[in-house]
Design a protein that fits this description.
alpha/beta, TIM Barrel, Rossmann fold, Immunoglobulin-like, 3 domains, 8-stranded parallel barrel, 20 helices, globular
């Protein structure tokens, strides 16, 4: 039986190979003093290529010392499988192990992890042997907490030319692709029909004759073949993880098995080229983890909603299996940029802010990557201590935060977010098509814009993958960022959702394509014309679009034929801009331009106000209301968790350009509730609150770039409001 997480976990990445035993012992002692009780190791460093430097010759001296030392100081170990970076001697046994790009060039084995092909049988034979060796060696060691499979599973997000390439085109992958296609299509006749393409129409007489597409559809090649190839690679990565998990469970059925992955990676924001689908991966392992680096490439400064968007995606992905999620990497210091860096000089306030955001989004563990940086990698990759192991202000901030986590049980599994009433539907097939068409930036920005309107309003939102579309019935409004494709049953479910009382919002190109990536004959697809009460009869490109109501659109202006809808706003020529249709007990709203992008790109408030008003009318309220006495450049994010005894409110001040060091803010908990007492946890100052219209109100004076955590004790242990509505 699996041992479940018990108590609060606070972690760091650490690799004893790079330090003397004396240094190691001091570092481990200092980590324990900071409250760190979990160390990840062996996923890359301290891994397979270090332990088995020669075939069959295992050297566990360093790892044995590390396990024993951690046990001595009461720290547990999350042990990496080490399979992301196999030893170099493996290539001598089988030269075909490295992944291969479309031009027949193998990925270098001395650059970054993920260079070995998951389809290669030699690689599988030897990773299985190594995995069995380390599991049997450490499964009964008292310091072992669990395992992490691989590291950031998927194909490398950078090729040797520092850009994402298409993988894998080796013979093993090609053969497996043919088998996958045969299972999907059953007959060559069906496949050949699906692979029609006007510029060239090859006819395949065998599934094994089919080559993976060496170019994207935007370079004129079959859309369906591209879609199949990336679906196949995503399936392959998931199966690769499943095999490892199953083998570990064969030898050790007690310890948790985790996996780390990411969303919104700058080099591959949709995860298509890396072939990762975190929503599906979360269902394979016991606990899913994510890697958050808001300072890298200045993401937090360029996209202020980035961290919350990332964390809501992470929380939603873990929610498929109703499991917790971990932050398996969080930046721990100045980050990235080599000699011209860092991209961001991550300081103690960033540490505090990032940790509060993770906790506020219900992460049950944060692991700082790493505790101490490495001399051989002058890239700027964090560190709670400096290169000599000396404590920094970041170290002491971690120590302070961890004391609060332990004291107030802030990772308690009883603490949960309030139930969101809004959902954003996303689709991996849609991402694949957007990648193939060269629409990555548009899709990424559309996702940001659709999320940002809720984030800016303080309205909680969940993400739902297209394959879980039946879950939308739990929400009052559902929206669809640049959703081009879907199955018939997908749109039938949306139709039924609106008919039963739900509300949706759509924009141009909604249901533009079928499941193969081919045109729908009419747009929207026929069943959605009923729902929206209109039909598209034309579209033109216009980057700047403005309605009579001063709402700003973007990129497209669509002409529609009304089929029952009413008009909410028009263009200067009188054509409908935003329409509404009552369908059954619900309603559907359609914008004939990309108004979400227009709002975000132009920082335009009129569409925002119109949209939020519609939400308010439908009973979609703010989770927490923040009123600034004098905002002037200040922005505060807020999250709320609750259990049967308390509310915990997290506030993070960021993107602050105001001149004043301090500013006042009124906080209103936007749900019916009452409380006996409250305090801010870092200062232990009491909260002077009052209740009005069955809501809690209090004011607080915040320092810019500061973060706060408030605990409000409920009256009479009232029931969970979010879960009894």
């Amino acid at each position: 039986m699996k041992v479940e997480q018990n108590g609060n976990l606070y972690g760091a990445g650490y690799y004893s190979d790079f330090f003397s035993e004396e240094e190691c012992r001091i570092d481990i002692k200092n980590m324990r003093e900071a409250g760190i009780n979990l160390i990840r190791t062996g996923e890359l460093f301290n891994g397979w290529d270090q332990i088995e430097r020669e075939k069959g010759k295992f050297d566990f001296k360093n790892m044995d010392f590390f396990f024993d030392c951690c046990q001595e100081y009461g720290i547990q170990i999350l042990l990496g499988t080490g399979t992301a970076s196999p030893p170099q001697w493996l290539k001598k046994i089988d030269k075909s192990i490295p992944i291969m790009d479309a031009e027949g060039k193998q990925y270098p084995s001395d650059a970054t992890y993920g260079w070995a092909c998951p389809h290669n049988p030699t690689y599988e034979k030897y990773w299985k042997r190594y995995l069995k060796t380390i599991v049997l060696r450490y499964k009964d060691h008292p310091a072992l907490y669990g395992y992490q499979i691989h590291n950031e599973i998927g194909f490398p997000f950078m090729s040797d030319e520092n850009k994402v390439a298409k993988y894998c085109f080796c013979e093993h992958s090609k053969r497996n692709f043919g088998t996958w296609l045969e299972k999907k299509y059953c007959s060559l006749e069906e496949l050949n029909k699906s692979y029609w393409w006007s510029a060239s129409n090859p006819y395949y007489s065998s599934f094994q004759d089919i080559q993976p597409p060496s170019s994207l559809p935007k370079s004129w090649s079959s859309v369906t073949r591209w879609l199949d190839f990336r679906q196949f690679m995503i399936d392959s990565i998931i199966e690769f993880v499943r095999k490892k998990k199953d083998w570990i469970n064969t030898w050790d059925g007690r310890h948790l098995i985790s996996l780390n992955t990411f969303f919104l990676k700058g080099e591959d924001p949709l995860g298509v080229m890396c072939a990762i689908d975190p929503f599906r991966l979360s269902s394979v392992v016991d606990i899913i983890g994510f890697d958050l680096y808001p300072g890298s490439s200045n993401k937090q400064e360029k996209w202020p909603e980035f961290s919350s968007l990332f964390l809501d995606l992470s929380r939603s992905a873990s929610g498929r299996k109703d499991q917790a999620f971990w932050m398996l990497e969080v930046e721990s210091g100045p980050i990235n940029g080599w000699a011209l860096g860092p991209h961001h000089n991550t300081d103690k306030q960033d540490i505090k802010r990032n940790t509060c955001r993770c906790l506020g989004h219900n992460a049950k563990m944060q692991l700082y990557m790493g505790y101490r940086e490495w001399l051989f990698q002058p890239i700027n990759w964090g560190g709670l201590v400096n290169l000599n192991g000396e404590k920094t202000e970041r170290y002491f901030m971690v120590k302070e935060i961890n004391q609060k986590i332990q004291q107030y049980d802030l990772q308690s599994f009883s603490l949960k977010p309030l139930q969101a009433k809004a959902a954003i539907v996303i689709s991996k097939d849609n991402d694949i098509l957007c990648q193939g068409f060269g629409h990555v930036s548009f899709m990424f920005d559309s996702l940001r814009a659709h999320y940002r309107i809720f984030w800016e309003a303080g309205i909680a939102v969940d993400f739902i993958p297209a394959e879980d579309i039946e879950k939308i019935f739990s929400y009052k409004i559902v929206i669809f960022p640049f959703l081009l494709t879907g199955s018939r049953s997908f749109f039938e479910t949306i139709n039924e959702y609106v008919w039963q009382g739900g509300m949706i919002y759509g924009e141009p190109r909604f249901s533009f394509l079928d499941e193969k990536g081919w045109y729908q004959k009419e747009r929207p697809v026929a069943i959605m014309q009923q729902v929206f009460g209109m039909k598209s009869i034309g579209i033109e490109k216009k980057e700047h679009v403005v309605t009579n109501g001063k709402c700003m659109g973007y990129w497209h202006e669509e002409t529609i034929e009304k089929k029952g809808c009413s008009v909410l706003d028009v263009y200067s020529d009188g054509k409908p801009a935003i329409v509404e249709h009552l369908w059954g007990k619900g309603k559907a709203i359609y914008g004939t331009s990309h108004f979400m992008l227009g709002y975000m790109n132009n920082n335009e408030s009129l569409f925002f106000e119109k949209f939020i008003k519609i939400l308010h009318e439908e009973g979609v309220e703010k989770t927490i209301i923040l009123k600034y006495v004098k905002q002037e450049g200040h922005h505060v994010e807020a999250q709320v968790l609750e259990d049967i005894k308390r509310f915990v409110i997290f506030l993070e001040s960021s993107q602050t350009t105001g001149k004043e060091e301090w500013f006042s803010i009124e906080i209103i908990l936007g749900i019916p509730c009452s409380a006996n007492s409250g305090k801010e946890l870092f200062t232990s100052q009491p909260v002077q609150f009052f209740e009005k219209e069955n809501k809690i109100h209090f004011s607080w004076k915040m320092k810019k770039n500061e973060s706060c955590i408030f605990e409000l004790q409920k009256k009479n242990e009232e029931n969970l409001s979010a879960q009894t509505e």
